[in-house]
Design brief:
Cupredoxin; CBM6; 9% helix; BlueCu_1_BS; Immunoglobulin-like; Copper-binding protein; 5-stranded mixed β-sheet; 41% strand; metal-binding; 6 domains; elongated
């Protein structure tokens, strides 16, 4: 005989005896379904039940894990063969509806199997079934197990938290409920994994009851929670540069710097940037850089745990948008007769300049000929009237208006080009390299009309007019090209010369036993100023010489003021760093020895 039937007969018997007052019977059981962010399964659902009047609870709320505001339905199947079709149930629940996602309905269940599902499009994988049984013949308790998960240390302790998951099965009437008891507390219905975060030892008991009323023996899981080390990983921060760019990759008018920081453990507390060595500034929005020239932006981020990322760096160049065409002109040189005609030859020189993006190309054409790239003065020797056209274009694509010069060439005159030579002088090492710099001298001669122009170019630089010896100090191999034109317009063939400049040997180290501490420290007072080499092997700590003997503390401070002022004058030290060093000297206890001045060799080191 089922427990429910026994309860009904007992109530009737007591009523006959006058010992019980008939009342409206409450539903025999409550079955609960829950929903969360999943679209493939319900968060929890029963697998078995008893027949009779039943309260159905469907909760789809933040409390059951729905953090996205997603709607679900609990709908009983009334058409698929093999299932009971006597209950019509369709509950729509949303965390933000008037019931906050928790709905109840009272139905009457009969023995058999019921199928339920979610009708929301895309949620059709949310489906399940449960069995209604009167429990007759089922005397076997459910099987229930526990699994503990979480990060563990080498001793097996769980770091910061442990998660306990319970699982119960019943081959007879089905599982009706699963309960747990943590550390001797009250028994609680299990609906989702239990997260335990309190530091210390813990014991969790658990049990399950089936629809027939059979309860399993209590199981037990024990574990220990220990404190974690917390967040020790700094954030990740990156920079991206955006804006219109020219063909050389320079940003036109403005470059916008966007910083992005992420932290997988705690959260990003602050992001900072430093532009061109300026002050560190909190980052809150993309930074627009409009100043023309090269720029360097450093950036860093700090998380809520206090971890600061290494400094990142991006560099870029901003140029002003060029809308002005180049300026271009031409001049004609050569020997002229009394009528102004050029005798034998006329040489046309084209000159172009651009203060914006720079000259990209210069072209010319003689009479009705084709436009030709201009690279050197153009000789015109054919007798007759001529017109030479010219034009230029800058890097930004702006083209000048076409210009022209006209002239007449008559037969005769100087037709021999000048002679030009190059001489390189300077201090040389054993391999004939020039040490520190090389001086290039050009000499041109012309026996007829005379030299009008000498030009040169170093490596890939533009051609330049030669007026005095050219000093080349850049280290490395160099090639110098040169040419000359005479008054009659004859241009020599290009000459070349090659040489190598190497660095001069460094001066001897004035402080072989140098004080190489990272910052300037005086008598234990850290000035926070970087302890740089002043250029001769001595550091700032060396020239301050705190270990020397001084007549008094004041004499020591006077010494520090004198040597740092000289370093400021020489451009080695900034005024701000000098002030910090002098302050550290004043706060120190250096001074009071037998000597009255710093050691003479310290003065020599400056």
């Amino acid at each position: 005989m089922s427990p429910r039937l026994i309860a009904v007969l007992l109530t009737a018997f007591l009523a006959v005896l006058g010992l019980a007052t008939p009342a409206v019977a409450a539903p025999v059981q409550t079955l609960t379904w829950t929903g969360n962010n999943s679209t493939t399964e319900y968060a929890s659902a029963p697998t078995g039940a008893l027949p009779g009047e039943t309260t159905i609870v469907f909760e789809n709320s933040e409390a059951t894990g729905n953090t996205t505001g997603m709607s679900h339905t609990l709908t009983f199947d009334t058409s698929t063969p093999g299932y009971n079709h006597d209950v019509s149930l369709n509950i729509l629940a949303n965390p933000f509806d008037p019931q906050n996602g928790r709905h109840e309905a009272v139905v009457t269940l009969t023995p058999g199997k019921y199928r339920y599902f979610c009708t929301i499009p895309g949620h059709t994988a949310m489906v399940g079934e449960f069995v209604v049984s009167d429990g007759g013949g089922d005397t076997t308790a459910p099987v229930v197990t526990a699994a503990v998960a979480g990060d563990r240390d080498s001793s097996g302790n769980y770091i910061e938290s442990a998660t306990v998951s319970l699982s119960a099965t019943d081959a007879g009437s089905g599982v009706a409920s699963v309960e747990y008891q943590l550390d001797g507390g009250t028994w609680t219905t299990y609906s989702a994994p239990v997260v335990v975060s309190a530091v210390g030892m813990h014991m969790l008991h658990y049990r399950a009851t089936d629809v027939a009323g059979n309860t399993s023996e209590e199981g037990m899981a024990h574990f220990t929670i220990v404190e974690g080390q917390g967040d020790t990983t700094p954030p990740t921060v990156t920079a991206s540069i955006a804006g219109d760019k020219d063909s050389s990759g320079n940003y036109l008018d403005v470059a916008t710097v966007t910083l992005t920081a992420t932290d997988a453990d705690s959260e990003v507390r602050s992001v900072e940037y430093q532009l061109d060595g300026g002050a560190w500034t909190p980052y809150s929005a993309p930074v627009a850089v409009t100043g023309a020239g090269e720029h360097m932006v450093h950036f860093r981020a700090t998380d809520a745990a206090g971890n600061t990322s290494p400094e990142g760096m991006s560099h870029f160049t901003v140029v002003k948008r060029d809308t002005t065409a180049p300026a271009v002109s031409a001049s004609v040189a050569g020997t002229q007769d009394e009528d102004g005609n050029y005798v034998g030859k006329a040489v046309v020189t084209v000159t172009a300049s651009d203060t914006g993006s720079g000259v990209a190309a210069v072209e010319y054409k003689v009479d009705s000929g084709a436009w030709t790239a201009y690279a050197a003065p153009v000789p015109v020797t054919a007798p007759g009237a001529h017109t030479v056209g010219y034009r230029a274009r800058d890097v930004a694509g702006n083209a000048s208006a076409e210009g022209s010069v006209s002239f007449t060439v008559v037969a005769g005159g100087d037709t021999t080009a000048p002679s030009v030579t190059m001489q390189v002088t300077g201090k040389q090492d054993g391999s004939w390299n020039y040490v520190g710099s090389a001086s290039v001298t050009l000499t041109a001669t012309d026996a007829e009309s005379g030299v009008a122009l000498v030009e040169y170019k170093v490596d890939s630089a533009a051609w330049a007019r030669y007026t005095a010896p050219v000093v080349v100090s850049a280290l490395g191999a160099h090639t110098v090209r040169f040419r000359a034109a005479d008054v009659a317009g004859n241009v020599s063939a290009e000459g070349t010369g090659a040489f190598t400049v190497v660095a001069a040997a460094p001066p001897p180290d004035a402080c072989p036993d140098s004080d190489t501490r990272d910052t300037v420290v005086i008598g234990g007072i850290d000035s926070q100023v970087e302890n740089i080499d002043i250029g001769n092997g001595c550091t700032l700590n060396d020239v301050i010489d705190e270990d020397a003997e001084y007549a008094s503390h004041d004499r020591f401070v006077q010494h520090v003021k004198a040597v740092t002022q000289e370093l400021v004058t020489n451009g080695v030290l900034s005024s701000g760093d000098r002030n910090r060093i002098v302050t550290a000297a004043i706060e120190s206890d250096i001074g009071g020895g037998t000597a009255v001045v710093a050691r003479p060799e310290m003065k020599k080191r400056l």
